[in-house]
Structure formats: C-alpha cells, structure tokens
Design a protein that fits this description.
The complex is a heterodimer of chains A (218) and B (101). With 218 residues, chain A is mainly alpha-helical. Helices cover 70% and strands 6% of the residues of chain A. In chain B, α1 (2-8) packs antiparallel against α4. The chains are: A mainly alpha (218), B alpha+beta (101). The interface between A and B is medium-sized, with 16 and 17 residues.
C-alpha cells in the first residue's frame, strides 16, 4: 500500500529518472548503441536499458495503488498499513534510482572507479535488508477487508496468512542477501526470480488452504 | 522493545503466547491451562497487550485473544523458551543429594 507522501516522492523520482534516460538517449547518434564501460572493457548495449529502472519503479507504484484500491477498512488501519510499507517503497525507489545513476554515469565515462558488479551486489543486499525489515512487521499489520469478497478471510485466518507471509518475506530477504554475497552475478537474477515465484506459489497454496478451513472465531 | 522483553521474560506469558500460536482463545479457555488466579492472568494479559504481542477482540461479553507478534518477536519467544528465561534454576545435584540424606 502506498500513502500520498510516498506516492508523490516516487512519482517525482519516476519522472526524474525517465527525463534522465531520455536526455542520455538524446546525446546518442544511435539509441541502440549505448556505450557502457564494463570491467572487461568498453562495450555497447541497447539504449532502452535506461528505461528499465524507471519502469520497474512505475510497476511498484501501480502495485501500491492497486493495493490501495483492493483494501478497504477503517482509515486508521489503512494508514498504519501505508505507513509501514513506506520504508520498503522509498528504499526500493532509492535503489532503482541508484542503479540508473550508475548506468548513466558509466555510459558517460564517469565513476569508472565504481565496480558495477559490486554496485549490483550492494543493491540486491540492501533490497534484501529492506525486505527483511518489511517482512518482520507484516504479522503486526492490522487486518483489513478486501473489495473482492473471494479474497476475504476471517480475522484469525488473516492473522495466520500474515504470519506466514512475514516469515516467508524475512526468509526471502535473507536469501537475497545470501545471493548477493555468495552467488556469481549471472546466477543472482535467476535465483531471486525463482525464489519470487516459489514465494507466490506458497502464498497462494496457503491462502487456498485457509479458505477451505472453517472459522475458529465465535 | 523493553516492553517486549519484559513480556517474554515470564514463563506463564510465554506459555500463553505458545497457546495463542495454535488458535485464538478467550480468557476462560486460557485460564484452564494455568493453575493461577484469574486476576493474575488478567495482569499477564495486560502486559502482553501493552507489549502489542496479542490482539483482543470483544464479541458480546467474551474477549478473544489472538497472537500479534512480529517475526523477530516470535523468534525471541522461541529463543527465550529454548534458553528457559525466567525459569527456576535446577537444583545442583550435590545439594539435592544432601537434602535427600
């Protein structure tokens, strides 16, 4: 969920990142040939790679807004949920901005002392820490109802779902940190993606199981 | 965080939390598991609520308690349980033998 303050900050970041990508592309004679300095020497990439960070930020904003629409309940509960999600959203926003800044600066031959592999590892590790911090407080989030009736659980089932989600999110964050530290760069993205798919599969399976159970509440 | 440590330092309160991990319970159901006065149990509930470890919902005259612990708090609960924080220390073997004589 996303509150107004976080929404404004992320929207500003998105427009700034998109403007920076367009500006960098405008300097190129051929936008499919973006010069990149890799540790193995100079190389070229498709210029559209510059739009990956702002688009992932936009995707995150859309997910946040979709959650705002999906959850309904007392204002206080909604505000608590939004406030508790702020750190993850803003932290992820800052990480995507940093990733784009590194790509642009290296394409302009600035900041060559920065090892892009280490930057990528640091971004994933910080992402893992933020994920763990968010996962820790998920079980404490207040219970709210959803606009789609089929997705509603009773208070106890909802608390159990949040508990599992919290533990899984912390484990996912820990796995991200381990992947950032231990795995070769090439294996990092597929590993994180596989874990992400497994995370959602377990979540859906657990939700379906809870949905079949009868309520324990009076 | 001090409130959480205080709440988790007592074996009775930890046992209440362990019971609430399994299912939501009302005060009466919880009282069946402890040979202590209801007023003492109420004091334990108050401490757990103050530490934001349980959530109480009232329906009619019945108050139902549910676990509301973060991942870290649950890990601390498991740790305190494993270490036996707040439990009476076991009597050393020599002393026990002496007493038996």
């Amino acid at each position: 969920m996303i509150d107004r303050k976080a929404l404004w900050i992320l929207m500003l970041l998105f427009f700034a990142m998109t403007a920076a990508a367009i500006w960098r592309l405008s300097l190129l004679p051929n936008w499919t040939q973006l010069p990149i300095v890799t540790p193995r020497g100079p190389s070229t990439r498709n210029g559209l790679v510059l739009f990956v960070p702002p688009l992932s930020l936009l995707f995150m904003i859309i997910i946040g807004l979709a959650m705002n629409w999906l959850f309904s309940g007392p204002d206080e509960a909604i505000q608590i949920r939004q406030r508790r999600s702020r750190l993850l959203l803003l932290g992820t926003g800052a990480m995507t901005a940093l990733a784009q800044a590194v790509i642009i600066s290296r394409s302009l031959h600035y900041g060559l002392w920065l090892n892009p592999e280490n930057v990528a590892r640091a971004v994933v590790a910080v992402g893992g820490i933020l994920t763990m911090m968010h996962g820790n407080i998920v079980p404490k989030m207040p219970s709210v109802s959803k606009r789609i009736a089929a997705l509603n659980l009773d208070a106890w089932q909802s608390a159990r779902s949040r508990r599992l989600t919290g533990w899984m999110t912390v484990a996912f964050g820990l796995a991200m940190i381990n992947a950032a530290v231990l795995l070769p760069l090439r294996a990092m993205a597929p590993t994180v993606l596989t874990l992400c798919v497994a995370y959602y599969c377990v979540f859906i399976w657990h939700f379906a199981r809870l949905k079949r159970e009868s309520s324990l509440l009076p | 965080m001090n409130l959480v440590f205080k709440a988790l330092s007592d074996p009775t309160r930890r046992q209440i939390l362990q019971l609430l991990r399994k299912k939501p319970m009302n005060a009466g159901e919880l009282a069946e598991h402890f040979p202590i006065a209801k007023s003492t149990l109420s004091a334990h509930f108050a401490i757990l609520r103050e530490a934001d470890l349980v959530e109480a919902s009232k329906s009619g005259t019945v108050i139902t308690y549910m676990l509301k612990a973060s991942v870290l708090e649950e890990a601390l609960l498991a740790f305190a349980e494993a270490v036996g924080v707040g439990m009476p220390k076991p009597t050393p073997l020599k002393k026990a033998m002496g007493k038996a004589k």
